[in-house]
Amino acid sequence: MSEPTVVIEEILRRSEQGVTRPFVCRGDDNALYYVKGRGAGRRSLICEWVAAQLATAFGLPIAEYALAQVPDELIEAQVFPEACDLGSGIVFASREMPHPQELTLVTRDRVPPELATDVLVFDWWLHNEDRHLTGRGGNPNLLWDMQSDELVVIDHNQAFDRDFCAKRFLASHVFASNWNRVYGDHVERERYRIKLSVALEKLADIRVSIPDVWWFVDDGVPADVTWDEVLKCVERYQREDFWNTP
Predict the structure, then answer these.
(1) Among candidate residues 66, 98, 130, the one where a domain is terminated
(2) Which of 59, 120, 157, 213 is deepest in the core (most CB within 10 A)?
């Protein structure tokens, strides 16, 4: 298991966006983090941590992330409302960017096609539907760095979705229009197969890095996620029907 590299020293506020409504906290390195803990659920934390590391291995420009430690005293002091929903112990922390803006239809068109297709294929691979953006709106869970003029990937807590729907995914994914760049090109499909295979070389290390406590909820009850279902999802890339669409 990986040890936390950041200690949370202060809870500043809670985000109003996102299903898990992460807490904005200050770490002992004086940086600000969006932190997900007890209230996010064990499954969410495991999915987030595994997907984040696979995103790094795959080469996506993901926001800096880490395991963090929330001291018992910080929660027991009850100086912040809803602190119990963060909980003490090991949590997932995503470092706050200095100049972020949620991706819009305008900035979406400034993303290089190769990178847009990478994000699309990665989400297809991990059964992550949580990247919606159409002319009717949506939440892409992607940021645009105003300073560097670049895309930043965040939020994978809904990866490995048991209810993944390919038709819905291709209808609303922010980069769905790039699908034919890979689906209709056998050379590209083989290139991505190799790229996915290389990313999976990190899988054993990723499994070891998951905090042991995340596999259980209170009183030793197993969390609503298994490593077998993660493996089943990521190993699909080897199947002939991996690219099949409805």
Answers:
(1) 98
(2) 157
